[in-house]
Write a structure and sequence with these properties.
Blueprint (H helix, E strand, L loop, with lengths): L25 H6 L17 H14 L3 E6 L5 E3 L2 E2 L6 H7 L10 E8 L9 E10 L8 H5 L5 H4 L5 H8 L2 E4 L3 H6 L6 E4 L5 H13 L5 H17 L6 H23 L1 H7 L2 H16 L2 E2 L4 E4 L20 E6 L1 E2 L8 E6 L6 H20 L6 H18 L7 H5 L44 E4 L2 E4 L13 E4 L2 E4 L6 E2 L8 H11 L1
Parallel strand pairs: 1-7, 5-6
Antiparallel strand pairs: 1-4, 2-3, 4-5, 8-11, 9-10, 10-12, 13-16, 14-15, 16-17
Helix pairs in contact: 10-12, 11-12, 13-14
The structure holds glycine and manganese (II) ion (2 copies).
The site of one manganese (II) ion has 5 residues, from loops.
């Protein structure tokens, strides 16, 4: 990649030289398209593609007679001419089935179908879905060799329109036609865009709507927000494909955890052992899936008491705990989110085990509450009560358990567990984040929902209210559950939870 300047400037060039890239000579331009094998046949259909129609149908039913615009988003610059690895907006991935690396600058448009006239919403009869994207240019095109963002020589072979259709089952058109498609009947057809996905597409939609006479920006933003909420809530209940992917993500995560746990002696010996753990897990995440689903938290000793410790630059010490919060994201973008707190030496000390067992009891209570028909927040209520009871029994709470659990006048227990117990999990680690409060925190758990249960206790080294033997101990245990008609299924059950089982597992790995 850094070799773009290696070629010496040619004697005759057809275009101006750039600072780091010589122009291309006429001889090169004549030579480069010659003698390439034809492109292979159509690619296989994505497994997700058998499920995306049903998801798009739900969006169609929610917004009859309106044009719905769901961009993937563009490449994000890391620095200068290098980009971050591409990751599409989660709603785009969900509605198209496209996963890792696909498809920068693409836009899914659901175009309403009418029996009557386009301004007669009552005659709307569903939508047709079209994926607009930048198809691969022929090898005669400058893009092939000169475009470092899209060119085949730079980023590999990209799809033609037909190939993308074979992959996704979607009708496909060139992104060059998007402007035309959005302008068509713009004065008669309502239009919503997923605003946060791509600022350029959002700007284009706003200009088209303004030109068509829609000038109330606040009303348009509100109607766009309804789309954002809808596509977020659409992911609250996972379909069979998604649940299978969540299980695969958890299985891959368990492999990564085992690799880290078995490498702890090396991590201790090398120094900066937190980084070593992060790197070992990342190796497995990239090998088995697309990436880690979020920045891994590898927090030893007192670092475990920093909830989002992702700097991971600490040493590991025998006798300390290490809190590992890590998840593999598959190529389909579904991610696990699992935490285990392990004794670096393989054996818990007595105070560590005391804290660990309290968190385990809280998690067990949370898991027991995770049943269809319960309210989402009841999982937290069950877990946090156990946390508060332990804190009270240990003499740490300045008030009764009931007073502390009273949200209006209490909350003292939160000093030692300030976060919630659960969140929805899926394509995003914090999935369905735009769902309404009444569908999420106050919503009812339904079969097919996938949530974490992850209580913790965090005793900072600087916490003078805590007995000295507990200071610097931080414990969280996190599993990924599927809600069913009966007991929840623990997708991450391959990793041990009980302290004895953790010790036995670690001994077996060494
Ligand atoms: N790893 C982030 C979380 O547990 O929510
Ligand atoms: Mn986590
Ligand atoms: Mn989590």
């Amino acid at each position: 990649m850094h070799d773009r300047t290696a070629t010496q400037p040619a004697a005759t060039t057809t275009e101006p030289e750039e600072p780091r890239t010589p122009g291309f000579s006429d001889a090169f331009i004549a030579f480069i398209p010659q003698q390439w094998a034809p492109y292979p046949g159509l690619p296989p259909r994505l497994p997700a593609a058998d499920h995306t129609q049903q998801r798009r149908d739900a969006v169609s039913a929610a917004f009859p007679g309106e044009r719905i615009v769901v961009p993937a988003g563009g490449l994000a610059v890391r620095s200068n001419d290098t980009d971050f690895r591409f990751r599409a907006h989660s709603a785009f991935a969900h509605l198209t089935g496209l996963g890792a690396d696909r498809e920068p600058d693409a836009v899914l448009v659901l175009e309403p179908i009418f029996d009557g006239e386009p301004d007669d919403a009552a005659s709307a009869t569903g939508h047709t879905a079209t994926l607009y994207f930048k198809p691969r240019a022929p090898r005669t095109d400058r893009e092939f060799y000169a475009d470092h963002r899209y060119g085949e020589m730079w980023v590999g072979q990209r799809d033609s329109l037909d190939e993308m259709t074979a992959r996704t089952g979607l009708a496909c058109r060139s992104i060059d036609q998007l402007r035309w498609a959005l302008n068509a009947d713009a004065d008669r057809v309502g239009m919503r865009v997923l605003r946060e996905a791509d600022a350029e597409v959002t700007g284009l939609v706003d200009r088209v709507r303004r030109a068509a006479g829609a000038v109330d920006a606040a009303a348009l933003a509100a109607s766009d927000h309804e789309l954002e909420v809808m596509v977020s809530e659409l992911r609250l209940v996972k379909d069979v494909f998604e649940l299978a992917e969540m299980q695969r993500a958890c299985d891959a995560t368990a492999v990564g955890f085992a690799a880290v746990a078995s490498d702890l002696p090396t991590a201790v010996a090398k120094g900066r052992g937190e980084r070593w753990c992060e790197g070992v897990f990342a190796l497995h995440a990239r090998h088995q899936g697309n990436d880690v689903g979020y920045g891994s938290i590898c927090a030893s000793g007192d670092h475990a008491n920093t909830l989002h410790w992702i700097r991971n630059d600490g040493d590991l010490h025998e006798g300390d705990l290490i809190l590992l919060d890590m998840g593999v994201e598959l190529d389909s973008l579904y991610t696990a989110d699992v935490t285990r707190t392990l004794p670096v030496s393989g054996r818990f000390t007595e105070p560590q085990r005391r804290v660990y067992d309290a968190v385990l009891a809280a998690q067990t209570a949370g898991i027991a509450a995770a049943r269809a028909g319960a309210t989402f927040h009841e999982v937290h209520d069950a877990a946090i009560r156990v946390i508060a009871e332990h804190l009270h029994a240990w003499g740490l709470l300045p008030v009764s358990v009931e007073e502390s659990l009273d949200p209006r006048r209490g909350g003292q227990h939160r000093r030692w567990m300030v976060h919630g117990t659960s969140h929805h999990l899926g394509i995003d680690v914090h999935d369905c984040a735009h769902a309404r409060n009444e569908s999420y925190r106050l919503g009812t758990l339904r079969p097919g929902m996938c949530i974490t249960v992850e209580p913790g206790l965090y005793f900072k080294a600087t916490d003078l209210l805590v007995p000295e033997e507990l200071r610097g101990i931080g414990v969280r245990i996190e599993d990924d559950l599927v809600i069913t008609d009966g007991d929840p299924v623990n997708l991450s059950a391959a990793l041990p939870r009980e302290a004895d089982a953790v010790e036995a597992w670690m001994a077996g790995l060494r």
